[in-house]
TrEMBL record:
Record-linked Gene3D superfamilies: FAD/NAD(P)-binding domain
Alphabetical list of InterPro entries matching this protein: FAD/NAD-bd_sf, HpyO/CreE_NAD-binding, L-asp_N-monooxygenase_NS-form
Record's protein name: Pyridine nucleotide-disulfide oxidoreductase
Pfam families reported in the protein's UniProt record: NAD_binding_9 (PF13454)
PANTHER family linked to this entry: BLR0577 PROTEIN (PTHR40254)
Record-annotated FAD-dependent urate hydroxylase HpyO/Asp monooxygenase CreE-like FAD/NAD(P)-binding domain positions: 11-161
Organism, as annotated: Methylobacterium soli
Domain of life of the source: Bacteria
């Protein structure tokens, strides 16, 4: 890479957890002369999709003990939380679970401190959508929706979770994070949620907070609900051999034996899964591609519900709703949706059933989660792909990147990425304990790359 002007900023695109922490870590890793430009299209910085919610019932899915923003200060969030008087923090035998909005405040405070720290401000906020990175010399001209452009030495793409393709197609489809846009919900017609994972759990809480007292039907291919956290310690990661990693069935057999051993020792599967966390990336990268594809086809729903667990109060709410009959969780698939007056007519085929089931619902909430790069309507990603600066990651999940987090594409450049966009490359990269490490590593790699360029 050619040399670069030592005063040009590094841009960070997206100010959710990934971008906020990448920017904070870059301020430490880069020389004082190099500013950081943090760009966010939403109103608030330091929130992202996960921590923008004001609803107290939307709890963190991880214990407060695992949510520090800094890998070298594991109790940082717990200590911050202890100083807060806000209601809604749930202390359970399985750990403390804070509202996600409160976590957003923690991040916003960290960002504010980073902006005001030191003498000359080095962290600049751009409240606009980035629409393009136009290669210019060794860096880019960063274009924004509002019009202003910025010369930057390089960029870190922290655009987060990709939105789905907008399915299922219906006039009555509603974004679960923007329920208020639907207006009044009537109690006499049910509401359909597509997906039965953590977003469904949040959506049920949002619907009730919104005043909806009617019936909710949630459907997914297997109808699996996320498991609940319990007071279990992580077990040491098993010492996996090359043979264990040669095939999914051998690996599964090995993990089942670990679970049996945990049960015998008075622990349970949670300790085994939590113990796998530090080596999940390694497992993912070691499995042959055909075995990774098999995992995505057959095991992913089971992995997701065991790995991404709910806080006990949220799980209790869902169990109560099911027991009362106000929430029905179905395994099956949607065959057709026909929009009619004031309702959508949905035909479902329940799993294992020989006949369809028909439902008239007033709205359909898509809680299926993350979309594929090939289907993304995101203008920035589409332009970067067209320019050859990025390309889809393995299995179309997120973006392709090297072990140094540098985005890979036919053209390449001084562009790095982190967080959920690395899903296909790393698999275990979407939660705070993983992303906080990535932020430190990316910052160090960006600084080293610029150092090398300056020395050249
Ligand atoms: C509902 C939900 C709950 C979660 N709960 C937890 C939890 O409790 N604990 C946990 O560890 N993890 C949780 N996660 C996982 C979550 O993915 C990570 O914790 C983390 O928030 C990911 O942050 P991010 O910055 O990568 O992505 P995002 O939060 O998606 O943020 C990306 C940001 O980039 C901005 N952006 C995108 N494109 C552009 C552009 N072109 N220009 C400008 N800005 C742009 C977006 O507006 C957004 O603010 C949750 C995820 C979700 C979706």
């Amino acid at each position: 890479m050619p040399a670069t002007d030592t005063t040009l900023p590094i841009a960070v695109i997206g100010a959710g957890f990934s971008g906020t922490m990448a920017a904070i870590q870059l301020l430490s890793a880069l020389p004082q002369s190099r500013p950081v430009l943090l760009c966010e299209r939403a109103e608030a910085f330091g929130r992202g999709l996960a921590y923008a919610t004001p609803a107290p019932a939307h709890l963190l899915n991880l214990r407060a003990a695992n949510m520090s923003a800094f890998p070298d200060r594991p109790h940082h969030f717990e200590a911050w939380l202890a100083g807060q008087t806000e209601e809604g923090v749930q202390r359970t035998p399985a750990g403390t679970f804070a509202p996600r909005g409160l976590y957003g405040r923690y991040l916003a405070e960290l960002l504010q401190r980073a902006i005001t720290a030191g003498g000359v401000p080095r962290l600049h906020l751009v409240n606009d959508a980035v629409t393009d990175l136009e290669p210019a010399g060794a860096g880019y001209i960063l274009h924004t929706e509002g019009g202003p452009v910025h010369r930057v030495a390089g960029a870190v793409l922290a655009a987060g979770n990709l939105a789905g393709p907008g399915a299922p197609h219906s006039h009555y489809r509603v974004d679960p994070w923007q329920l208020e846009q639907f207006g009044r919900l009537h109690p006499h017609l049910p509401v359909l949620i597509v997906g039965t994972g953590l977003t469904m759990v949040d959506t049920v809480a949002s619907l009730r907070a919104h005043g909806f007292s009617g019936r909710i039907v949630a459907v997914s291919r297997r109808g699996l609900l996320p498991r609940v956290h319990a007071p279990v310690e992580a077990r040491p990661a098993p010492n996996l051999t090359t043979q264990d990693l040669a095939s999914l069935s051998v690996l599964l057999g090995r993990i089942r034996r670990e679970v049996a051993a945990a049960d015998a020792a008075g622990s349970d599967w949670r300790g085994v899964l939590d113990g796998l966390r530090p080596i999940t990336d390694l497992i993912w990268r070691s499995l042959p591609p055909a075995e990774r594809a098999r995992f995505l086809r057959h095991l992913r729903p089971f992995w997701d519900v065991h790995r991404h667990r709910t806080a006990p109060p949220a799980a209790r709410t869902i169990a109560d709703e099911i027991a009362r009959g106000s929430l029905e969780v179905l395994a099956g698939r949607i065959r057709t949706i026909r929009d009619a007056e004031a309702q959508a007519l949905v035909t479902l085929r329940p799993r294992g059933a020989g006949e369809d089931r028909h439902l008239a619902v007033q709205c359909i909430l898509d809680a299926t989660g993350i979309g594929l790069v090939s289907e993304t309507p995101d203008p920035l990603l589409r332009r970067l792909m067209a320019r050859g600066l990025v390309r889809p990651g393995p299995f179309g999940l997120g973006l392709d990147a090297g072990p140094d987090y540098r985005a890979l594409g036919p053209r390449g450049g001084r562009l790095w990425t982190l967080g959920p966009l690395l899903r296909g490359v790393l698999w275990e990269c979407i939660a705070v304990p993983d992303i906080r490490n990535q932020a430190v590593e990316v910052a160090a790699l960006v600084a080293a790359d610029l150092d090398r360029a300056e020395a050249a």
